[in-house]
Amino acid sequence: MNLGPKINTDVKDVSPFLAADGKTMYFSSKRPGGFGDQDIWVAKRLDDTWKHWSDPVNMGNTINSDDYDSYYSIAAAGDYAFMVTYKNSYGKADIERIKLKKELQPDPVVMVTGKVYNAKTKKPLAADITYEQLNSGKEQGSARSNSTTGEYKIILPYGMNYGFHGKAQGYIAVNENLDLTDIKQYQEVHKDLYLIPIEVGQSVALKNVFFKQGTSTLLEESYPELDRLATILRDNSTMEIELGGHTDNQGDPNKDLKLSQDRVKTVKEYLVGKGIDAKRITGKGYGGTKPIASNAKEETRKLNRRVEVKITKK
């Protein structure tokens, strides 16, 4: 796709590099306003069309010379850049590393690394890793784990609440979430993903299913994960499941029990609304009687507020 007249000119425009934030593009051009030969310029993508960009800005004489400068790239952390220059080179061209000032760094990102495992055998697993914006359900990108080691790596630009999951044939996708709306600097996060084999007795928590506080009303961020569960049930037409609703222990036990039951009912109704036979879904609320983490502080209490899926028939 031609990126439009702000980026492309009638002279030589080469070596584009999109930073990990998915918005900041660096490229080399011989356009007017440079220092001589090819210079490095930077522009920001303003929307999702790839046609609207900020006015390109020359990176200045601390980066550019009056000779050929090109192939500019930046590490995910945003602190160092690499480029090729002909200026004062040992031969035809040299590779240089540049320590970037804060104002020249792209927007911060989070690098997520980990391994994908079979939850039952704990062996590495090849899986497709997809990440999406939870609020809209829009897919933002994908990767694939190494079939031998299970290793994967994804880079998430700041400013969004993300869900990401691993998916493989014969397994229930395991979902995680990361809220990066307030990220101010580069971070690295390690998250291993354990995929649940589709076998009777196996269970998985729906980590990206959310309710309005103290109610059984589903939030829109829940729809992508529930839609994937509905797809699994459609693809495995004889599978039957039991939904388990759980709360923390901070409220009245009787009210917590009813709340967990109501949330199970809401999830079942959503799945039925997606075409799943109600007879294939049973459910039970447990209130706060089956914690999986401490209820001593909010950070761990939130792990106890969950809906689980258990396979009762394959």
What does this structure look like?
The protein has helices at 223-235, 253-273, 298-304; strands spanning 13-18, 24-29, 39-44, 57-58, 69-74, 80-85, 94-99, 109-118, 128-133, 139-144, 151-157, 161-167, 171-172, 174-179, 187-190, 193-197, 203-205, 240-246, 281-285, 306-313. It folds into three domains: 13-104, no CATH class; 108-197, Immunoglobulin-like, CATH 2.60.40.2190; 199-314, 60s Ribosomal Protein L30, Chain: A. Strand 5 (69-74) and strand 6 form a beta hairpin. It is elongated. With 314 residues, it is mostly beta strands.
What is the H/E order? EEEEEEEEEEEEEEEEEHEHEHE
The termini sit apart by 47 Å
The CATH class of the largest domain: Alpha Beta
CATH superfamily of the largest domain: OmpA-like domain
Proportion of strand residues? 35-45%
Our count of domains comes out at 3
Biggest β-sheet strands, sense, barrel: 5 strands, mixed
Q: Tell me the number of helical segments per DSSP (H or I, 4 or more residues long).
A: 3
Shape: elongated
Number of strands: 20
> Architecture of the largest domain in CATH?
2-Layer Sandwich
